[in-house]
Amino acid sequence: METAQKKAVVLLSGGLDSTTVLALALRQGFDVYALSFRYGQRHQIELERATAIANSFGVSHHIVVEIDLAQFGGSALTTSSAVPKHQSVEEIGNQIPITYVPARNTVFLALALAYAESLDCFDIFIGVNALDYSGYPDCRPEFIQSFQALANLATKATVSGIRRLQIHAPLIHLTKSQIISQGIELGVDYSMTTSCYDPDAIGRACGHCDACLLRLRGFAETSITDPADYQE
Q1: d(CA 100, CA 128)
Q2: How many Å apart are CA 207 and CA 67, to the nearest integer?
Q3: How high does pLDDT run on average in the chain?
Q4: I need a labelling partner for 51 at 20 to 30 A (CA). Which of 1, 58, 160, 177 fits?
Q5: Whole-prediction pTM value?
């Protein structure tokens, strides 16, 4: 008798990290259910990229969930506040930036958990990173560990002792250059991805927000030219 392929919910933003995680989940043999969010973000070009990426990998399950975190405000990504721009990574600083969206990963993982439970799925993949990132509190290992503990207290199957749920964050301790190198080995086409917090009307990256600068440094450290389309 053939064993059914294990399912995994993969959070897919259309960015560099989440696309690499999608490739990793597929390499590990999971039947992927990709999950994206239209949450009121100013950079909605990422959803077009997420759909194209899911299609390019042959993912048969990809849904976009509509929520509106812009109603709460509190972030430059969901309001008209200016996205901070810098000339180099060194200028980013150590403070949590205004591009942090309050509780975003908590909300995303909660919805991913609901989706996983409806699928009888016990694996969720997320592309958070705690090294080359903007200092968001919901990208830290402590957060992922705590959410996994919560998930195993919150669902019917886990409470019934059928199986424990695992939150996979395979990039959390990697630098951006290590992530890119791994993605290249997995066959990821990074020209399809977008990382910019403030792209122009046709989706070209600004080149100066935190996400662009960290991405550009990662490619520079791997001696590979970033294939993304930049405004300058």
Answers
A1: 13
A2: 28
A3: 94
A4: 177
A5: 0.95
